Amino acid sequence: MENLLLGLLDGVGETFDAERVIKLLIIIAVTVAAYIALVILRRRLKARLNLDHSEFKKRHAFITVFRVAKALVIISGIVMMLQTIGINLTGLTTGLGLIILLLVLAIKDYLQDIFAGLTIMTDKFFSVGDAVEFDGRDGIVVSFTVRTTKIEFLDDRSVLSVTNRNISKIRKLTHLVDIDVPLPYELDRKRAFELLSGICDDIRGTDGVESCELKGTQEFGTSAVFYKIRFFCEPNDRPDIRREAHKKIQDGLAKAGVAIPYQQIDIHSKPLRPDL
I need a surface site. Which of 27, 54, 217, 250 has the fewest CB within 10 A? Predict the structure, then answer.
């Protein structure tokens, strides 16, 4: 019995020699420092994002991310300490690594949505109520979670749920709207500017239009000269005001007797020779 106790004490002494104790203390210090750094980072980000209790979903996602991060720090510290005292975790860590890899591959899209959602939150890319463009259609952001963004389109009031990993396809709209008006090459430039300036005055009088101006010649096309008209309005009103602006442009050109040019194909024929 006495020999057994002496053997155990010798084993403990070998396990906790001076070098290993120093390594353990370093691991503990690094783990505690990383944990404290996460706590400080969480507080600063929380103050910057100004997440109050009314934004439950954002707060929940924010808290969950930092809880997972702190758990990973603690688990990593425990694993390194166990390996330092001589417990072989190679098989266990290999198995856990494989499981984690398979899990990450299985939920890759889910994680991409979450990270994109956090990017939207931190960068304040857009928020509920903003006007955006998705897939060529204008809409309003009606709700936002850490995984999805719901957009109500202005043309038919349909609602589409977009995963946040498609953030690159979403464009936040501004008050600026440009319309390129084609006019025939035969129309004198001075006359074109006078005509379009009058049309700008009509557009400026439309309800919801903040200002309107003729920017000048935009492009020389194959069958027309394009002139740019620019006006400003609330993004939510863009579709209706754009249609009204198109109507005023058509009416103004028709009143001035100017036809809107379009591509045409001219076919020239020659009479057959009488001797053929």
Answer: 54
State the Cα–Cα distance between residues 143 and 126, nearest whole angstrom: 11
Please name which of 46, 37, 201 lies closest in space to residue 121, comparing C-alpha atoms. 46
CATH architecture of 125-172: Roll (2.30)
| Per-residue pLDDT tens digits for 72-97 | 888 888 878 877 777 766 666 666 66
268 — pLDDT class (breaks 50, 70, 90): low
- For the 176-255 domain, the top CATH level (class) is alpha beta
Measured in whole angstroms, the distance separating CA 144 from the mean position of its chain's CA atoms is 12
Q: Parallel, antiparallel, or unpaired: how do β-strands 148-153 and 137-144 relate?
A: antiparallel
Residues contacting 64, CB < 8 A, separation 6+:
none
> What is the C-alpha to C-alpha distance for residues 145 and 164, in angstroms, rounded to an integer?
9
Using a CB cutoff of 8 Å and minimum separation of 24, what contacts does 243-246 make?
244/203, 244/206, 245/177, 245/179, 245/203, 245/206, 246/179
Q: What angle do CA 72, 74, 80 make, to 5 degrees?
A: 100
pLDDT tens for 113-169 read 666 666 666 666 777 778 888 888 888 888 877 677 888 887 778 888 887 777 777
pLDDT for the residue 3: 47
Cβ proximity of 261 and 224 under 8 Å? yes
Query: What are the beta bridge partners of residue 182?
Result: 226
Helical ranges in the chain per DSSP H: 2-15, 18-49, 56-84, 90-106, 108-123, 189-204, 238-255
Amino acid, single-letter form, for residue 17? D
